[in-house]
Amino acid sequence: MAVRALLKPWAPVCRDNTRRNSGQAAGYCVELVRKRDYEGFLCTLLLPQESQNSVFALRALNVELSQVKDSVSQKSLGLMRMQFWRDAVQDIYKETPPHHPVALALSQAVQRHRLTKRWFMRMIDAREQNLDDRTYRNIQELETYAENTQSSLLYLILETLGIKDVQADHAASHIGKAQGIITCMRAVPYHSSRRQVFLPIDICMLHRASQEDFIRGSLEKNVKDVIFDIASQAHVHLEHARSFKKRIPKSAFPAFNITVALDWHLKTLRKADFNIFHPSLQRKNTLLPLSLYVRSWKQSY
């Protein structure tokens, strides 16, 4: 009962109308991703038609998991939600998914593409461990978290495209790490407003930047140097991912179109002289749909 209360209400499932039920679940996922992960929403629209609903379900799960930490007042409630999703994935692979729209859509995706269960479990386990308000000790810890969350999501997206390729997985690993690092930086103003800082301690210590510097929105050089070092690591991962271009099938490229948004964030950050609090970093990229289309047309990432 407690777990059910933590989940958003959804219309009862019509057991005798599977097609209608699947359509409702798919629509729920699309709308959730559109509202909470607009960049992922646009990227998914450029995927082959046969993969879109499955990827919307995957991204909807990612949204659900990412929202847990900020939507509960106590860690115990967060643990209950994570356990719900862990049990839901187990039930999906038993072909008895719970009557939750994201779980039902995921069940369809798993059956259609034979998705690998361990990537789901890695995402859930990593998000659960991150419920503690603990700062990353070093950049490697942040990269590990990004690998377990964002890279795992990319591995699943590749599977919906029918891609099973070691080189493509290597590229996905680096893109996921870059995305996780950039996401961490983008969240700095939000976390600072709540007197929280999650940037890697080792880099902050290297430049003698304290948590209080970020909390008060300091524009001093040492704070910008911290952001420069972290952003540089994200850039290295993107370049490494692109070094695999000639070794992976082009049919894998659509899975990596999130790099368009990541490039924009890094470019905007450079223009702002690595001032992570600059207003330009909080604006939506209105040219993203066009940029995504151009990159897709060029068959690149």
UniProtKB/TrEMBL annotation:
Keywords: Membrane, Mitochondrion, Mitochondrion inner membrane, Transit peptide. GO terms for cellular component: mitochondrial inner membrane; mitochondrion. Its main location: mitochondrion. Pfam families: SQS_PSY (PF00494). One of its GO terms (biological process) is mitochondrial respiratory chain complex I assembly. It comes from the Eukaryota. It is found in: Mitochondrion inner membrane. Involved in the assembly of mitochondrial NADH:ubiquinone oxidoreductase complex (complex I) at early stages. May play a role in the biogenesis of complex I subunit MT-ND1. PANTHER family: NADH DEHYDROGENASE (UBIQUINONE) COMPLEX I, ASSEMBLY FACTOR 6, PTHR21181. Belongs to the NDUFAF6 family. This is NADH dehydrogenase (ubiquinone) complex I, assembly factor 6.
